[in-house]
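Question (not urgent): is this output format expected?
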Amino acid sequence: MAQQQPAKDHWTQNAYSASASFVPELATTIVQWLDLHPDDTILDLGCGDGSLTAKLKNSCASVTGVDASANLITAAKKAHGSTAGLSWHLHDCRFLDRWTNFQEEAYTKVFSNAALHWILRDANTRSSVLQNTYKMLKSGGTFALEMGGKGNVAEVHTALLAAVIHQGVGIEAARELCPWFFPSEKLMKNMLEKVGFTVERIQSEYRPTKMTVDKDGGIEGWARLMGAQFLEGLDSLAKREAAVKEVCEVLQTVISHEEDGNMYLGYVRLRVLARKPR
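Got this back:
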């Protein structure tokens, strides 16, 4: 679930829980697509703090969680480190072939929830991530993934772009600061088929999602955590704070629902079930 840029670890369990605790809770559909069996061996790409990964273990033989955030892997080990059949590994998923545990045909299934839009942001490694995922699957194995799809969180994406531009960043530089890759169904299907997968199911769902109401959450907490790389493009704390303030003020009426007073972001979820042919 965590962002895969290795330069700085923005992620903490507290910040994630405060601003995005709904992410693992809304993964019911893709877990159903994963179709776990007692003898399955699972690789979870971008496992985050392990809250969902640990639940998967209840229905299979073993789960291996990999994430680039040292903070979140530490949290996963602290919460679930003694659970048999669960293992946690700190590694940048863009470079799976450099992982000391990389092994071809090692897993019956690969799973990823809310992580690949970070992992695949780097266009230079995008194809190799999918190629190495394919290699690590046993023949006949499946890859079940859910990630942000085209148009995901468009309101806050636009607001973050505008906010950093208003603080003096050029438009092209602002676009480069974006940490996400949100593909369409067609593009994702083509990418997976290019490395050998057979795409069995693919679905996009527009799912307005209620923001948390925690003190450190809401749209401000979300923007600070998920939009951290946008804010890092600004050269002073004052500019970063001004950008966060602008994002919150601009979105106040855009994402607020009058009927209940809550804020909702326009999530677009892209789900795929792909198989490695026998």
